[in-house]
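To the team - xanthosine-5'-monophosphate complex, inputs and output below.
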Amino acid sequence: MSLANLMSKAEEKGSRLILALDLLGPKDYCSSRAVYLLSILRDYVIGVKIGHPLTLSIGIKGVLDIIKQYSSEYFFIADFKLADVPHIMKATVKVLVDMGFNAVITHLFPMSIDELVPFSHGLNASIIGVLMMSHKGAILFEKNLSVLLDYARGVGVDGVVVGATKPMYIKLARERLNRDQLIFAPGVIRQGATAGEALKFGADFEIVGRAIYEASDPLLSARRIVESEREALHDQ
Ligand code: XMP
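Output:
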């Protein structure tokens, strides 16, 4: 499924919110919590990002079951931040797409995804490259941003990740990437960025984890985030 499908879901639900489902803990608890969250958040969340935390907690079979159950309602993004040589990247992405993931996040810095992007499109899946990380010590990303941006644009990744805590880089990425290359911004609320802020700087989607799945009322939290996003987009 291409990112155009994610944008259609965004328009349908009036939301730019992607849930980072980073549940970590006992298998049964994480499985039932994941199912509970996805069953209540469907009106506000358009995509679900799954990575090491949930996969290590509930296993590949557990992740497969969740994707199977909710594949018609959410766009599923695999976030294992892949950074390997080309043939391993292709083999890994093939397995993830066979599991039902619609997009896969990879690192850009190994510069090993030239063949992966068209290969993934052939599988009807999208590639999202990590362009900038949200934490303070991400100096190597900052120093090499221009090179990474040129590479991302050149290989035609479908999207990039830029931390919402660094809105100036979102703005720069929006200026330098093609318009159909979409920007995903994590780091909202718990890492300091306010909901909707990244969208104002040119991001297309916001990724939120703890502020939703650790909230006493996850539905209310998701609703408030989406309302802030709608205001941010309306003000533009
Ligand atoms: P929280 O709980 O902070 O979760 O809302 C954030 C989620 O997003 C991921 N994350 C990042 N991924 N570049 C990335 O590629 C970043 O700058 C970044 N910041 C946060 C993190 O893995 C978690 O799933």
